[in-house]
Design brief:
The protein is of the alpha+beta class and 345 residues long. It has 11 helices and 9 strands. The structure holds adenosine-5'-[phenylalaninyl-phosphate].
Length: 345
Amino acid sequence: MSDRITQLRTDFERELSAATAEADATALRDRWVGRKGGLLTAEMKTLGKLSPEERKTTGAELNELKNYVESAIETLLGEFAAKREAEQLAKERIDVTLPGRRVQAGHLHPITLLRQKIEDIFVSMGYEIEDGPEIETHFYNFEALNIPENHPARSPQDTFYLAGERTTELALRSQTSTMQIHAMQKRTPPLRVAAPGRVFRRDTPDATHNPMFYQVEGLLIDRGITLGDLKGTVEEFVRRLFGPDTKTRFRPSYFPFVEPGAEIDYTCFKCGGSGCRVCKGSGWIEMGGSGMVHPNVLRVVGIDPEEFTGFAFGLGLDRLCALMYGLDDIRLLYENDVRFLEQFR
Ligand code: FA5
């Protein structure tokens, strides 16, 4: 073998062992066997200058070297490609034995849980559950409920009017008592209806007040209904909701749509009756209003007050919820703090 070819081979092998990256291998290929400017390609071109005898042996040796160079570079490129593929696979590897990530499922709001419980109690006592509008006309908000023109409840300081003006016909209902009218318009007595829903008032928020809160209205109309039936029903309702130990009391009060009227209190959810900041020292918390349906209200919906009497009551759900879950502030219910809500899962 000619010295020249031996030298070329040695040079190539040194460069080959120095190639540590895929780019080195491709550069090596261009440098040695590239179609343009490849070292061996150029060497081939010099064969023409040799004698026919020399050309034969040197040509064969050169060819052999070229094949060797090509296959060595091919092998090296193959090794780099395999390495690249293995790295990619390692990156994409999934450990199927790892524990899964738990998807957090939603759950019902405490007010909804209480509402469902209350609906169940009313249904078991023979009441139909009814839903109604949150935006009402003057007729349902005031007139039909026997609320006189100059009553404070009509004032924009208490009621949210839709255009912010008292003269507007439409307002957000400030009590579920509007549902008494809807219920009686749809049915003929005897009837029993319970209507839970949202109500709105311009109240300053504190531990027992929120501008948006929930009430449930109960209404029963039949022949010969008395105040005793009202008391018995409310007491039974509270016992079924909170157990036999919860005490209620009735205080005479005025609501234009009942006569007589009474406020219903129950033992304070915070102190249990001894007196605290939440119940302002009295030991009692106001749960709702009640009374015997006013004859004027019955007449508005075409029921003869000489033949039928009935009672109605409206309870605040937020305060019932506070009692049930031992909350010391009803505003917690509307802050949407997940740490609070998660406890009702
Ligand atoms: C009424 O709303 C009458 N409609 C109740 C009624 C119905 C009387 C049927 C007669 C016959 P009152 O304004 O007192 O009554 O409200 C009833 C209850 O709602 C209150 O006892 C209280 O538990 C709750 N409540 C009132 N204002 C708020 C408020 N801002 N935030 C949370 N709860 C409230």
